[in-house]
Amino acid sequence: MALITTQPKNPIYNGCTTLHRSIPRRGNTTVLGLGSVKNFNFNRKQSKISLKSNPFTYNLAVTAKANAGFGEGLEGESLKHRKILLSEVEVKRERSVLFGRKWSSLDVGTAGIVLAMHVLCLFAPFHFNWPAFWVAVALYVVTGLFGITLSFHRNLSHRSFKLPKWLEYSFAYCGVLALQGNPIDWVSTHRYHHQFCDTERDPHSPTEGFWFSHMSWLFDTNSIVERCGEPNNVGDLEKQPFYRFLRSTYLVHPFALGALLYAAGGFPFLVWGMGVRIVWVYHITWFVNSACHVWGNQAWNTRDLSRNNWWVALLAFGEGWHNNHHAFEYSARHGLEWWQLDMTWYVVRFLQAIGLATEVKLPSETQKQRMAFNNHTIIT
Hints:
Layout: E1 48-50, H1 57-65, E2 77-78, E3 82-83, E4 90-91, E5 94-95, H2 105-121, H3 130-157, H4 165-176, H5 183-195, H6 210-214, H7 223-228, H8 235-238, H9 241-248, H10 252-289, H11 310-315, H12 322-327, H13 343-353, H14 365-371, E6 377-379
Antiparallel strand pairs: 1-6, 2-5, 3-4
Helix pairs in contact: 2-10, 3-4, 3-5, 3-10, 3-13
Pathway: Lipid metabolism
Subcellular location: Membrane
Cofactor: Fe(2+)
């Protein structure tokens, strides 16, 4: 789900730039959004850390020491450390979002929509029919694959390839129907995630708690401004009237789709085509932020907690090859091995074959060698 607009002074597209939520903005009506640029300059002495003994030590050090002093005194935080279940990833700064703070009207609106979609799902067993089920499946592909993974993430956030404007805008509109935020806000949040990945300025890192990285960060709409400053990294989208229009009218479009579904198939179409489908795509998207920074393996020296997770990759059309993505953020292909299923890449490759996708970016062998682990050590 999403949030940003103008190119930063230190742009994310430095030859390499990495699904997650839209960044809420003060004064706007955006409700939701889903999200690593390497910008680590801590001016510390170099040290070598053995991956064999503790493959997470470097990442935890980055998280604990990066941007020292940021966020001191933030409400709802605890200093106790604990490991996440079945993982060596350690929660350094437990952040409570639900209690002990003042909720803004935007926080309440975001939580209200998420809750409403989950409540709508409760009616699914009692209003099942096959047409409604297949509508949900079709919209899962249209909004999840074409809208979120292909458009919001790989095309708009990372500019991994170019499309004709009519097709770029069509796919972006599919993303709006996922109810994860408008493209400007979604892209902004995701770019911030890459820029500050797994540090105290990351909008959603599991070092502040698994559920914080999965979904509760969505309900603190001012935290991104507090961590990252006002959105200034989506100028490429801000200057296009189409994306400004989607931002100003964002909520109209998914709810218009809901009305259309109800008119076409009654309450079952609404339950399955909106409730079940939206919640399904929500949690798949959120697992990229949470599970793919906690469970899985690291194939590349990305100096963060990103993981390749096969089951998230299956559900999220290839987005689960997340360590690959953080290593080569600019790449249109995330499943770099032949056996790494990547449905989004297959669509991009098809579009390239028929001449609609151009300037498709892939990592070179030199870039792969640069990101490879060297003798099982990481230089910090």
